[in-house]
Write a structure and sequence with these properties.
434 residues; alpha+beta; six-stranded mixed beta sheet; five-stranded antiparallel beta sheet; 16 helices; 20 strands; 41% helix
Amino acid sequence: MLVSNSDAIAAALRELPATPLCVGYSGGLDSSVLLHALAASPRARRQGLRAWHVHHGLHAQADDWARHCQEFCRSNELELTVSRVSVARDAGDGPEAAARRARHAAFEAGLGIGETLILAHHRDDQAETLLLRLLRGSGSTGLASMTPWRACGEGRLWRPLLSVPRAALLAYAHSHGLRWIDDPSNDDDRYDRNFLRNRVMPLLRERWPQADASFALSARLAGESERLLEEEDALALAAVRSLDPQALSRAALRKLPVARRARVLRRWITGLGLPPLPTQGVIQIESQLLDARADAEAEFAWQGAVVHAWRDLLHAQMHKPPLAEDWQTPWDGRAPLALPDGGEWRLEGADAFDAPGVAHARRGGERIVLPGRAHGHMLRKVLQDLGVPPWERRRLPLLSSAQGELLAVGDVAVSARMDAWLRGCGGRLTLLGG
């Protein structure tokens, strides 16, 4: 039995989540059909259906497009949010990718708690995405292409039309008399996706009419395989974690197969909210960090993030610069001390120090008399014994008396004199990172 285009779209939208709903609405064919079909659903309207147009400002007609979206929503009694975003034109990977990043950043920042963002990507889009990923040499994660569901800011993102061909959307639009925007940049074959859509896919369909469906099926099967792999990755990651979630055991990592280790590293980095680990990063960690000496300061940095190797652990975090050697400021403890990195140092449980001191950066050669000790020890050796990693040592503020006696090192070590004073007044020092 033949399925009408309206039935195919209605079937795709049948599993409507019981949440507030927001359609990413460009005004083009695909999102116009999606929004029109949802607007015809009383249930979707009851759940607070709204539309969201992102104004990129990249085209001379961008203002006209926003007005078109406003008119459509007004005539269909739908709420519309219009967000203007700034697109980095010199990002290095083209305006299309830069616009996509800006658009998704806006969605993630503005989506309501528990709200579902619905996008109109269809089967043809999925086929093109798979081909692009193949041409980039992607593994199973990339070949899964666009997933139907994923997290997005405070809510979730849903692509219900991934099994629906564009031809069905076009037929729906004509049968309902819809008007939509045709972006002229879609005809520019300088962009990879347009080249595939306008020149490669038509040629493939001449020989293999079901090419789009086959590519989309391959992406779905890759996604199923990826989910099975992810379950094993989660178990492997749990097995190599240290007590600190930002650190992994190098010894435990070395016991994993190379392919599994690469997946675990990527999952770890993603879970920490850091920029995705590039292929070169996995290679560098394998060749330079996993077997580095325990006292070495091997590292790999990318996009503002860094992985350090020290002792048995790999540590990952956003890069944080050390304190400038010439940084110093008086501090009496009455108010939190603002640090150059955006953090602050606090004296808690007491009104102020018994005498004002000087907060400053490490300059090398400092000594501290620890509680229960009669003689001073090199600060470098004290921090090493306490297990403070080298990059963290360079960020620790020091507190010295007016006479130059070292009293405290962040919140990791205090002198015998400072320890006695803190115990006497019930105080403590706390360092809050920037």
